[in-house]
């Protein structure tokens, strides 16, 4: 009998903890040191179970052979029942049984409108475990590459300043950083821009990331997509590709991107990716020009069997310029949009209908995972806590290793010490459960991570009012 990892499964070790996750099923599991040792024996290449038992006997010196075999068989059987691993009498049988993403399956990860009860308690427990783990052991679980700062679109709301100098990350440097991240146990990498497809070696970079066994995401406007890139995305078995569609009215969409014909190209590319069984989803940032159009975008996504979501939170540019905020919804427009979302989006209503109450803010909790479990490198080689946090440099990849910056950067150490208690007004705010306060948005708009933009406070109170009105109406009805 042969056994191997499912192609969508990834194994990592963190201290004495073994971790396995599957990007297809969205399930994951954590194990103690013995489970970690068992996990390390299951590789991408099919391996005879008897060879694995022999290897375990060399680790557990003096253990009973049949007891080890029984324990491993039960361990592997449980993993296979949950689609983490695949077994078979031959490699041909394994290949035939290997799960793969397809839009034809009914429980795929891109399926829109997932119900709350479908969220696995095991996954939530894993999330809670790592939330506690990273407080004491900061670990880069995810890393974003801004492969290039060049873009063929000039989106009016973009947080990157149009006047910036344009760079491409050198391919050798990208390879080197990927190699470093693999050594550090990073699980997920995202390739973005600018427009990442403008990088001359995008396909080579994608292939190198696959060779290093990362779960991979791509952020692209898709206007430059071609058959060669589609094949590369398919071969790389990416986790997800995300593209923005601002309206199903091509004029409105192209007004935002300032690139004539961009809507037609993006939609055509999405259709080709869906036909090729490449997992995609749509984001629909809403602006003053387009906020009444988002429903048709989400309807298009749902019709094509993919996730679509809207986002009405816009932040200033990374150089603290705010001209892009001319496109941000006013509070009156935000109220109109929120009312519409509550009536239209059944996923959002499912959250509102949930009996779970938001957990109170813990003054000792961190605001987010920036600098705790994630980091970014920009196209000029500068490291930042995240892609929007480019007013907060941590060090440069041309001069320092990832580990050196992650472990020794003084700005990063300071960021890790920021807790909710440093925001006393937020802690005391009546609308805190309806707000997603963000240090990046603070810094880009106010030049300080500690000064919250009043616009976002206004949105939080609007959200609170409308949610309470909805719940009161449901209770009365």
Compile the SSE list and pairings.
Blueprint (H helix, E strand, L loop, with lengths): L1 E4 L3 E6 L2 E6 L4 E5 L1 H8 L6 E2 H11 L5 H17 L3 E4 L2 H7 L23 H16 L5 E5 L24 H14 L3 E5 L9 H10 L3 E5 L7 H9 L4 E5 L5 H8 L4 H14 L4 E6 L8 H10 L3 E5 L19 H14 L1 H8 L20 E4 L4 E3 L10 E2 L5 H7 L1 H7 L7 H5 L10 H8 L7 H23 L1
Helix pairs in contact: 2-3, 6-7, 12-18
Structure explained in plain terms:
The chain is of the alpha/beta class. The protein is 41% helix and 14% strand. It contains 18 helices and 15 strands. Strands 12-11-10-9-8-7-13-14-15 form a 9-stranded mixed β-sheet, with helices on one face. The longest helix is centred in the C-terminal third of the chain and has 23 residues, at 454-476. It is globular. The termini are far apart. The model is unreliable at 113-124 (pLDDT under 50).
